[in-house]
């Protein structure tokens, strides 16, 4: 019989530590050594010692502790590195849970893999675990494959054939030798889904994308589009009202074949698609078994309760490399976005637009700015606090993105960060504003209080392909007699300057625009600079360091100009003071962590400059 004291200890002791910390405290595990040279000792396995720096070993250690404190198996019945008798070449099971104190009768075989394991490696681990569990001299009832947050549990008892890999999938390993639960995660219980760290979320998103991409099964952009749909379903399921003790639906169910799981997930998606048809119009197009694997990656995570900054950084970092490689676009670095928002200081009733919003970075940071402002005025968690920032998100945030796939990502990114996706549209921002207005009445000339944007650099708008070019002042040449002649082509960033002017409110509308330095310095661009000074008051010019976009694979030298749209008859004043600065640091390293920054200092200096408006160079 098993030791009742072990069981009582595991079940009754308050959860003051993580399972791994408790295992160390209770003497089942001993981790020694300095960072980079740590060893782990499993006391229950004849003091078995392994290298704790191995990512796979960390997964094993954590699950070993879970077996004791979460699954309630006596520690004395859990062994590591168990030799599979008479199996050649010699094989060892990572963990074996036995059903007797003498450890002669295996109950569950566990194979552990590192978090970043591929699907092929994970499936290979399944076969290894099943092979060990069904070997005549190491016969077990269950196989568990653990790769960080991704898990697969199989019932390999005599009820199923040796080759069964579908009908025998369980939601989770039974607790304390009991019956398998129908689901693994239930709201408000110790088996509730949990928020995760930035690193874990990035790893999970990457695994999901790799599963959907499948080495070429789908194109990378299509794979990411499908991932967005599934994340949308996941978040919707988390937000559904349910009582404590009720199961979530976005998870694997015991003995449920892939086809039935797919039916359940698609039903959830269709239900939400009806409520919000602007987000996604197409059905989920993922193979049932692939869908099950993606669900296994995501099911344990609570996206709604994961910290907003964690989600923001995780999604941005994943998408940085993804879009750079697959869409040929470059993201605006996070610190530059924050800097622009902090310089412009949006107000709660301002209408804010990004006419080339990409994945929604400027919009998200404007929303985050407003959320922090709400915290200055109201207590977090109150109705007033929520209404303050949520009304801004729903009624005052607007985005335009020409690429439909990226527009979906922007909407998805806004949903992940607690909404603001309603007024993001897929459209060419340089085409007729009337067409955009017909699609969404919020888009109109002279409408916006603030525009924050990094328009696409370098692409040419050709008159033969885009007749609307001739409708732009900057799309025409003007001869000495003032006669206009349409240009054959014009740079996209030049036309965006004029489109921004059209969108802004006369007299008060402001904009922060990232532009290539060529517009500000090349002699051939003088007519563009004349347009800017005539149509806008130039408030500030901040020259960005060459390295600003280096992490994104772009070597372009750029600046941010901060402008105010002049009134209809406002005459430029040659004595208008312009704040100019040239920071050397942009505020974050390649991993997204905060570093020493000159951008925050520039914001303070700009505030001082605004008080007396005298010429200034920082």
Indicate the topology.
Elements: H1 4-12, H2 19-25, E1 29-32, E2 39-42, E3 48-51, H3 55-69, E4 78-83, E5 92-98, E6 106-113, H4 119-134, E7 142-147, E8 150-155, E9 169-170, H5 198-213, H6 220-239, H7 258-275, H8 288-298, H9 308-326, H10 334-344, E10 352-354, H11 361-377, H12 383-396, E11 397-401, H13 404-416, E12 424-426, H14 433-439, E13 450-453, E14 460-462, E15 476-478, E16 484-486, E17 489-491, H15 492-503, E18 510-516, H16 517-521, H17 526-535, E19 536-543, E20 558-565, E21 579-581, E22 586-588, E23 594-597, H18 599-612, E24 616-617
Parallel strand pairs: 6-7, 10-11, 10-13, 11-12, 13-18, 19-21, 21-24
Antiparallel strand pairs: 1-2, 2-3, 4-5, 5-6, 7-8, 8-9, 14-17, 15-16, 18-20, 19-20, 22-23
Helix pairs in contact: 2-3, 5-6, 5-8, 5-9, 6-7, 6-13, 7-8, 10-11, 10-18, 11-12, 15-17
The rounded Rg comes to: 29 Å
**How many E strands?**
24
> Main beta sheet, described?
9 strands, mixed
Runs in which pLDDT lies below 50 for 5 or more consecutive residues are: 1-15
Estimated share of beta-strand residues: 15-25%
Question: What is the overall pLDDT average?
Answer: 87
Helix content: 25-40%
Q: How large is the count of helical segments?
A: 18
The strand line-up of the biggest sheet is 12-11-10-13-18-20-19-21-24
Oligomer: single chain
> What is the end-to-end distance?
77 Å
Overall, the morphology is elongated
What structural class results from the helix and strand content? alpha/beta
